[in-house]
Design goal:
This protein has ten helices and two strands, in the order αααααααααβαβ. The chain is an all-alpha fold. Helix 2 packs across helix 7.
């Protein structure tokens, strides 16, 4: 009986020593701090969800269901868009309500249907948390504020850029990067199908709001950008999504209907 006990003690001791020898890398930059915050449920009312609960890395930082779950298992009002490849955007969210990435990063924290935590309370949590106290002081030379919280989270999102795809390599002159079928598909995309009229530029979005017929006031009653501007010409308008990583980001449209 003594031998198994000794072996067990040795295994536990070795595991403990090994765990303590592994250096856990602490955030050193605002990008790394933003990443830590992105995955931390500390920013939700009941500590149940993080940004990554809806913006899932395995789905190109989008979600794979039409409407994600906020706190208290409430459905969000719109489909979760990807937060990748956003560096060139001039506005954010389906209705373009946020003008900067820093502003966008904070809105879901306060939104009652998402994380439902007032920013002031979020800051109190961070500034009373020993690790975050040290990190904000080290990186921003100050306690957590609304401004530097937004900067950290925006900085992380700016790192989420799609790498060189076959299309990018083809555009750079590698004639063998895309198949004949893909090249033919690009031709249809540009010409016959006219997809390029809305989905243009490096990330296949004109970063514009458009009405493509998904509002009729009955079955489709999300008023889109009109809710922000109260301008009748914006009724039923939504931002044109980029098409990078599209194989991972279904379902599509603001209501996830496709």
């Amino acid at each position: 009986m003594a031998k198994p006990l000794i072996v067990t003690i040795l295994i536990i001791s070795f595991a403990f020593i090994s765990a303590n020898l592994i250096e856990v890398k602490k955030p050193e930059t605002k990008e790394q701090l933003g990443e830590k915050l992105f995955f931390d449920p500390i920013l939700s009312k009941d500590y149940s969800i993080s940004c990554a609960s809806c913006h899932k890395p395995e789905f190109a930082f989008a979600d794979n269901i039409a409407f994600s779950f906020g706190v208290d298992s409430a459905f969000t009002l719109r489909n979760t868009p990807s937060v990748m490849n956003v560096s060139a955007f001039s506005s954010f969210f389906w209705d373009g309500r946020a003008k900067t990435l820093e502003e966008q990063a904070l809105m879901p924290i306060e939104h009652p249907g998402e994380m439902d935590l007032p920013i002031e309370e979020a800051l109190q949590r961070l500034n009373s948390h020993k690790e975050y106290q040290k990190l904000f002081k080290k990186i921003f030379k100050s306690p957590a504020t609304k401004e530097n919280l937004g900067k950290a989270m925006a900085a992380f999102q700016l790192t989420l850029e799609t790498g060189k795809t076959p299309f990018d390599r083809w555009m750079d002159g590698d004639d063998n990067a895309m198949s004949a079928a893909a090249i033919n598909g690009r031709k249809i995309f540009h010409e016959k199908a006219k997809c390029f009229d809305c989905h243009f530029g490096p990330d296949f979005t004109g970063d514009e709001v458009k009405n493509i017929g998904l509002f009729d006031g009955q079955d489709f009653n999300d008023k889109g950008r009109f809710v922000i501007t109260n301008d009748s010409s914006d009724l039923g308008k939504f931002k044109t999504s980029g098409l990078r990583n599209i194989a991972l980001t279904a379902p599509y449209m603001h209501n996830g209907m496709f």
